[in-house]
Amino acid sequence: MSNNDAAAWNIAQRMFVAASTFMIYDHLITIDQEVAWFWSGKWNVSRLLFFSIRYLPEIDIVIIMFIYYGNVGFRVSLPLVQMDDA
């Protein structure tokens, strides 16, 4: 991996962590409003859409962070970024 590729990969990782942190922070500061407005009614299509928009990205974040930053015992390689040991 060249220096430019390594720098771009480093920037991409930091941007992902920053965006993830902001999204989780937003979720935490609005949880009281969500409980009052969302969880108190019966389920319909709009509630299902809200639930999928609100919670599926957070599940993706956890999975992606586990793969890239956790110790999962295998190497992940993306088609656009080749990770070389050299």
Protein described:
The chain has helices spanning 3-29, 31-37, 45-69. It has 86 residues and is mainly α. The mean pLDDT is 79. The chain has three helices and no strands. Helices cover 69% and strands 0% of the residues.
SSE layout and pairing:
Layout: H1 3-29, H2 31-37, H3 45-69
Helix pairs in contact: 1-3
DSSP helix fraction: 55-70%
* Beta-strand residue percentage: under 5%
Shape: elongated
**Number of helical stretches of at least 4 residues:** 3
Order of helices and strands: HHH
How would you state the average pLDDT, rounded?
79
Q: Helix/strand-derived class?
A: mainly alpha
Radius of gyration: 18 Å
The termini sit apart by 8 Å
Q: What is the total tally of β strands?
A: 0
Main β sheet profile? none
Low-confidence stretches: none
Which tags fit this structure?
86 residues, mainly alpha, 3 helices, 0% strand, elongated
Structure at a glance:
This protein has 86 residues and is mainly α.
